[in-house]
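Recap from last week: sequence in, structure out.
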Amino acid sequence: QVQLVESGGGLVQAGGSLRLSCAASGLLFEKYAMGWFRQAPGKEREFVAAISWSGGNTNYADSVKGRVTVSRDNAKNTVYLQMNSLMLEDTAVYYCAVRPFAISRRVGDFDSWGQGTQVTVFS
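Predicted structure tokens:
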């Protein structure tokens, strides 16, 4: 049974930085691609970033490209989302998700999801 636990969210001033973490259990972590998604109230869940199971391939949404870095530490069963130059529109609940092997940016391609961590950016 796959379990994902996000952490690292909080309140941050615009222009600041946060690092989100997602700790995984119940799976062979090194065989799973990892994704980060976010959802603001009244909006659909949207793709943020993803990383292949090997860590050799990453993908970013245009809205965060250049400001966000996704990485993983397979020894710790953890994926990270480093967010810099945060903007008001980055405010959302951020979710970690996993799928076997292949990287994807589609919500429907991911099998398991965490409960999310709130990121609130203020001016």
